[in-house]
Write a structure and sequence with these properties.
Helix 1 crosses helix 3 and helix 1 crosses helix 4. The chain is built from six helices and two strands, in the order H-H-H-E-E-H-H-H. It is elongated and about 55 Å long. It has about 150 residues and is mainly alpha-helical.
Length: about 150
């Protein structure tokens, strides 16, 4: 349901909240290396997020990306809608062009409640809340440095 761009952007924002602040900004190269994602693609995503005010950035020496306390109150949906138009949640799970309550696909009624729930969660959950859950549960945003 989420594009790779949305997934990378969410991971990058979580990373920034965990490791960056106004006195310790982080560049796209470092974030991409730590998250093990394409640096040019991530740089484009970070530029979009910064341009729309979801994250902050400074150029030049000591520059990079970070979030203010106000930015941390944005929701996951703010990130998703910045990177993608969000229409993935309206698309048919089986890829049919026209799928709705009047013309349902075989999985329509099984998937609709799930899609509504996850959309609601994305619209309500703040970046700050996600980071708190990551810290509390020890969940990973990268597989780097994990014993496998």
């Amino acid at each position: 349901m989420l594009t790779n761009g949305c997934k990378y952007a969410i991971r990058a924002v979580i990373y920034l909240v965990m490791y960056a602040d106004v006195n310790n900004k982080i560049g796209a190269k470092v974030i991409a290396e730590d998250l093990q994602v394409s640096q040019p693609f991530l740089a484009k995503l970070l530029k979009e997020l910064s341009g729309k005010g979801v994250i902050l950035s400074n150029k030049g020496p000591g520059g990079g990306y970070f979030l203010s306390e106000e930015n941390k109150e944005n929701t996951l949906w703010d990130i998703i809608s910045c990177i993608s138009d969000g229409n993935k949640f309206d698309e048919c799970f089986l890829g049919l062009v026209k799928c709705n309550n009047d013309n349902p696909c075989p999985l329509h009624y099984a998937v609709v409640p799930f899609k509504k729930k996850i959309l609601s969660d994305f619209q309500q959950k703040t970046i700050h809340a996600v980071v708190e859950e990551v810290k509390q549960n020890g969940t990973a945003i990268t597989l780097r440095n994990l014993d496998m």
